[in-house]
Amino acid sequence: MKINVLLTPSNLDELSFSGKTTVIIDVLRATSTIVSALNNGAKEIIPVASVEFAVKVSGGMFGGLTLLGGERNTKKIEGFALGNSPLEYSSRLVKGKSIILFTTNGTKAVVKAKFSKNLYICSFLNLSAMADHINSMDTDIEILCAGRNNSFSLEDTVCAGKLISEILKNKKDLELSDTAQASIALNKSFGKNLFKMLCETEHGKLLLENGFEEDIKFCSKLNTIHAIPCFSGNVVKLLVRE
Amino acid sequence: MKINVLLTPSNLDELSFSGKTTVIIDVLRATSTIVSALNNGAKEIIPVASVEFAVKVSGGMFGGLTLLGGERNTKKIEGFALGNSPLEYSSRLVKGKSIILFTTNGTKAVVKAKFSKNLYICSFLNLSAMADHINSMDTDIEILCAGRNNSFSLEDTVCAGKLISEILKNKKDLELSDTAQASIALNKSFGKNLFKMLCETEHGKLLLENGFEEDIKFCSKLNTIHAIPCFSGNVVKLLVRE
Lengths: 242, 242
What we know:
homodimer; 38% helix; 10 helices; putative 2-phosphosulfolactate phosphatase; globular; alpha/beta; 7-stranded mixed sheet
């Protein structure tokens, strides 16, 4: 069983994901938001790679059952019902709804990896659930960090490293790529106090400046949600386990 | 003073380097080879981004004073005088010579960063000399890791982290990007036994398979050469310090 970490979606071809098992991580905030929204009863998340496509898709759906969510430059998009703050996606608002979601990095990464055989959504919130599921699968894994504007982001890589470390507790014979080894080391260095780490990253600082400290607090909580969002047929739903 | 690390040359525009001070790192083996060749008396290194251009440039130069060097898939290119092994670049062979060099990652990275205001070549061999020079400059620094086929390479990032750690010994008020912080952490995790680290990276394993253990040993030596190769006017020469 091999594990590789893709530090950014930059320069990756969509077709390179064909047949693979991929885990997407965008800690601040898209994958934390998806995990949270589905856990709060949203029917499904429809990740899209452009605002225009989000609006187009929403036009063909029934009103009331569909919500538009997402951000540009950390802020809610004009005319959208929801931003990209996981705290907005409360049970009251999202229960039973289809949510069309556009975010600068996270949903684009999901769409890029859409040809994967298995495609999962991971954050600190559902990390141990994800690790358990991967251990039950026994297949090679690509962890795709959404990064920031096609560049490296420390928080996604630390989350990847923590996920691999969790998998390693039950599987000793993993073959780790350079990036997988680096991610484990970065989790050891930065992964002890997740809230502090998130506040000190470039993306974290930008969110703090824009008043999103509560979001950072929420996204830093480890293993609070036992759920595995899974992309299939262009939507993300919770995996129903036997 | 800000320090940023570019983990790969992928997706970078040549013009983005305009006016910047850039340090190129390709531990295995291009920057180690350049440092070594110049230290052994080579007049200059002419880094090129394609084999075709290497042959073209060499055609316009006087025979005897020019050597063609480089590799493809770790091996010497047919018809070239030298490969990409630093051990080949002995005083006897290179003294007074202009060397046109093509390598898969390193020389391409140098050419990509050619519009930098200051452009330096770093490896473990000349790391402390490089750090001293940067400290004397007091300017923002971009460290460009050549990586491997446009992907992350652990050895280049560890070298970047060690360079920053060395700079930090004399400068405490550095502003560090996420990648700079990550590089420092990776040097702490992997930078104690450089030979062991190099042997265990993906690129190191490939070189071992191809019989280049002595090269890895040579490239792992820290601070054995007190020289700073500097790119200017399309050639790399040793910086003459006042």
